Amino acid sequence: MLSIPSLSTACGRARTTRTLFWATSAPCTRPATTASTSAPTTATATSSTCPSPTGIAPATAATSPPTGWSPPHCREQPSTPCWAVTSATRTPPARHLWQTPVGPRLLPWLADHAVADVPVLPGTGMVEMMPAAGARTFGTDRIAASDVHMLSPLVLDPEPQVTTRLIHHADNGTAFVEILTTGDDGMTVHARGTVRPLPEHDHPALLTAAESNPQRWRDSDVAALHRTFRDRHDVFHGPAFSAIDHIRVHPTKDLALSTLHTHDSARVSAWTMSLYPALADQVIQTAVSAWLAHYTLAPGPVVVARFDEVRVYRPTAHTRTAAIRVHTADDLGCTASARPATADGTVVAVISGLRVANVTPPEERFTGRLLHQAQILAPAPAERSRATDGTWIVLTTDESAWPVELARELGKQTAECRLLPLADPAAPAPCTGIALAMGDEQTGRTPAEAARILVTRTVALVRRLTSWDPRPGCGS
To answer: Across the chain, which distance is largest between two alpha carbons, in Å?
Structure first.
């Protein structure tokens, strides 16, 4: 989540504070025309262009601004996006809501992250909203977000109105955060997690010289990484999300180190953010490079699914390197940890339990594997004399028309042919050959369903063959 200046008129003066909105507003230093009371609450500012989304009741505020009130710089600069801010009274548990439109119209660099040619907010963007909300609630930039689950992709076309909802539990010093949108189908929760302030004594160790400059690690092709994302996983990274200078991976262990920077097109408000989404996404790409180095990935979209914990110690805009360790991995996902750091090795955040997963449904993954198979034409075999003295068995999963017809034709050309259904427990007599018949064609089914039935039948037939002892003579 981006942080932009907002107005606070407490004590009758203007001051700049951090808040949680994706917008490109310049810092506002002009005094507000409306002052809040001295009650111990957060002032409420509501723009008429940003109403609360359907289904979310606005929180109770201590003071209500005049009807149609909006920040002065929004009235004087029509081209600057306005926003809505609503904060609840500080009685536990307190509820806070922040909302704003999110999309490439306000931040063009968001178009540089797309899945299947549709702009989608990266998972790191939703994570950013959580420590940003925690910073506003707890009054510190040192925030930990834990048990962060990505529940639904946040598509940016058409431009959504995004709400960050925080419920502050003062009794245990934590807050529950959800990222929401509303549409024709009602409310959608895209992500949720818990935030808390970090204790003052919690400081991560610097990256060691060996971690910052490992020896005898092999280089990983950054361009090839982004081609793999695009061609096999339908994830497109434009300039703002592909500013990785160099990646090195350990030759045998699941470790990686990257050198990265902020692209010029993505510098808007970067210095104000606690966990800059584009840089954090490049940290995740580094984890994927370590995953790719030692595993074969299934095709299909790969997305961020979960974070066990994200500890933000200081703003991450000056991140220049990322140390990665992959803990578990297979062809459909991996779990990793990461430590983004500045050029001098100062760790600015610690990411634990990062889960990257393939979100392709099993049926589509199976169909995709079939599409990657190739048919190779071979010349027809030379004509052979009929084995009139041979005996055959047609092993089939059912007694449908096609296996019966196959057994009849083989019987005409051989000494004997027996049809043996899979359910028949009898062991076959010695024979010249065995034909596996899969039954009739599966009409009226999808290609994936028909393929699944075919494979299931094939496995059942092969298992029956291998269970015979002694096995019938030679076969084909």
So the answer is: 107
Residues 6+ apart with CB under 8 A from 127: 145, 148, 191, 193, 275, 277, 280, 307, 310
Give me the pLDDT at residue 33, please: 31
CA atoms of 447 and 452, how far apart (whole Å): 9
Confirm if 198 and 144 have CB atoms less than 8 A apart: yes
> How many whole angstroms separate alpha carbon 256 and alpha carbon 290?
6
Least confident of 103-117, 130-144, 208-222, 374-388: 374-388
Output the CA–CA distances (angstroms, integers) from residue 92 to 64, 170, 273, 301, 316, in the order listed.
21, 6, 27, 41, 31
Residues 248-360, CATH architecture: Roll (3.10)
Q: Nearest to residue 250, comparing CAs of 205, 294, 295? A: 294
Using DSSP bridges, classify how beta strands 161-169 and 94-101 pair: parallel, antiparallel or unpaired: antiparallel
pTM comes to 0.62
Q: Which pLDDT value is given to residue 378?
A: 65
User: DSSP letter string over 276-328?
Assistant: -HHHHHHHHHHHHHHHHHH-PPPSS-EEEEEEEEEEE-S--TT--EEEEEEEE
In sequence order, which residues have a C-beta less than 8 Å from that of residue 37 and are 6 or more positions away?
62, 63
Domain ranges of the chain: 5-197, 248-360, 391-467
Say whether pLDDT at 394 is over 70. yes
* Superfamily (CATH) of domain 5-197: Hotdog Thioesterase (3.10.129.10)
* Residue among 363, 393, 371, 368 at smallest CA distance from 453: 363
How far is 208 from 211, CA to CA, in rounded Å? 5
Residues 6 or more apart whose Cβ sits within 8 Å of residue 111:
104, 119, 156, 238
| Six token digits for residue 246 | 């160099």
E strand or H helix that includes residue 455: helix 447-467
Is 436 or 196 the better-scoring residue by pLDDT? Answer: 196
Please write the tens of the pLDDT for every residue from 151-167. Answer: 999 999 999 999 999 99
Please give the structure tokens belonging to residue 177. Answer: 């955060």
**Of the candidates 38, 26, 18, 291, which has an alpha carbon nearest to the alpha carbon of residue 138?**
18
Task: Please give the share of the chain, as a percent, with pLDDT higher than 90.
Answer: 46
Tens digit of each residue's pLDDT (9 = 90 or more) over 24-42? 333 333 333 333 323 332 3
Q: Average pLDDT for residues 352-376, to the nearest whole number?
A: 70
| For range 177-191, the mean pLDDT | 93
Give 231-287 as a DSSP string: HHH-EEE-GGG--EEEEEE-SSSSEEEEEE---GGG-TTGGG-SS-HHHHHHHHHHH
Mean pLDDT, all residues of the chain: 76
The yes-or-no answer to whether 5-197 and 248-360 have a common fold is yes
